[in-house]
Amino acid sequence: MTASGSAGSGVPHLDVDPFDMTFFADPYPAHELLREAGPVVYLDKWKVYGVARYAEVHAVLNDPATFCSSRGVGLSDFKKETPWRPPSLILEADPPAHTRTRAVLSKVLSPTVMKQVRDRFAAAAEERVDALLEQRSFDAITDLAEAYPLSIFPDALGLKPEGREHLIPYASVVFNAFGPPNQLRQQAIKRSAPHQAYVAEQCQRENLAPGGFGACIHAQVDEGAITASEAPLLVRSLLSAGLDTTVNGIGAAVYCLARFPDQWQRLREDLTLARGAFEEAVRFESPVQTFFRTTTREVELSGARIGEGEKVLMFLAAANRDPRRWDDPDAYDITRRTSGHVGFGSGIHMCVGQLVARLEGEVMLTALARRIAKIEITGEPKRRFNNTLRGLDSLPVTITPA
Amino acid sequence: MPAIIFIHADGKPDRVETSGGESAMQAATRHGVDGILAECGGNAMCATCHVYVDESWLARLPAIADDEDALLDGTAAERRPNSRLSCQITITSELDGLVLRLPDRQV
């Protein structure tokens, strides 16, 4: 892994493969290499531009007219290749089409709605901690980071009880599919048919319980905000991006707090830090590591000239630890002012479910810190490999009750 | 550069110098003003940079857009007629001396 001399346009060419298993196992040295090589780099392996510094990642995210999403936010260029599934009406769309669909999901997942579901989410977190206190030793990924969102989010959406086991595998396909045609992506898509069939079925109006997020999206059809054929695809967005992301977010937070006992202690002494502890874990671990954009015209970015129709890979995780932006970036500090981190993105495509994620994270960490004195890692954590998501497959822990 | 004054829930004032064209929220976070959380970083999505605008300044602010209006319905502290999101207030020289009161909580 080296940075070779600058080529034609002055953009350094790197032979880093950010979708390789060795990269995933320890991305931090490569993130530093990418950041320090220049404000814009070129990755020969996949023939894409890359930005890993905070300023450039933030700039690309906030210029959707130049760096568009409608040609796909993965490596695949929808102008040249047929997408593996019908494109998302929100993630893979540009204004003005995006503006309308975005408004619908913003409304369905608004701060007002979060107030309504808060008590329910908090009660479920307490119930989860009850169960964990019975177990004492458990897997913090399966029994906590997965079990908690699974106990609330599918119900909040209004999904039927049957078939929910497809949800995490489906999300895994979606996030692998943003990557290049490597083994992770090819295998995921090859095995995706049953998960896709389940998801397509659940997105239909008649399969969504009244009062849930899904039914609220369909109700927007009656308001004239979206058409009847658009509604199922918007429900699909919540099924794609609403569960596995929070699993990895909560997993990241628990992993951080188990590794850094001083921060756990601080949280226990002041439970109002729970929300910040979750947010800092999203910055520190960046559960969503990368996204692509495609240039709509020739553009100059921090001195680098990028032609039209080029893919630009944004390293959100590297930006979240850029020393140009963050003091002591490699420290997990639950009192840090995290505002401005790009773990949820930034600009018009910034995670529309961020409030759901924060609510889940906050109430879960509050419940844990109130009732547990100590979390000890008792076995080797196992990583789960995905082209976009960073998280663990297994985190064996033992807890001591408060 | 124009300065603005945040008054904390306990009555303590915090005078903040702004820099060209930034929002009241950005000025607050840059100076570490407690009481402005700004979880979404200024994208008008989270309602955690809620302020109560001093009545004498209210008419001088730009109108509330629809998305801000909807978000204000979801603030943690009570919404009042003078509630605004500080990320949506761009500080210009006309707003030099603006007084913004902070709610007792943002989440």
From TrEMBL, chain A:
Alphabetically ordered keywords of this record: Heme, Iron, Metal-binding, Monooxygenase, Oxidoreductase
Top-level taxon of origin: Bacteria
Transmembrane segments annotated in the record for this chain: none
Cofactor entry: heme
Family: Belongs to the cytochrome P450 family.
Protein's recorded name: Cytochrome P450
TrEMBL record, chain B:
Pfam families given in the database record: Fer2
Keywords for the protein's UniProt record, in alphabetical order: 2Fe-2S, Iron, Iron-sulfur, Metal-binding
Domain 2Fe-2S ferredoxin-type per the UniProt entry, residue ranges: 2-106
Cofactor requirements of the protein: [2Fe-2S] cluster
Gene3D superfamilies noted in UniProt: 3.10.20.30
Superkingdom assignment: Bacteria
InterPro entries: 2Fe-2S_ferredoxin-like_sf, 2Fe-2S_ferredoxin-type, Adrenodoxin-like, Beta-grasp_dom_sf
Entry's family note: Belongs to the adrenodoxin/putidaredoxin family.
PANTHER family documented for this protein: FERREDOXIN-2, MITOCHONDRIAL (PTHR23426:SF65), FERREDOXIN/ADRENODOXIN (PTHR23426)
Protein name, as recorded: (2Fe-2S)-binding protein
Organism: Bradyrhizobium agreste
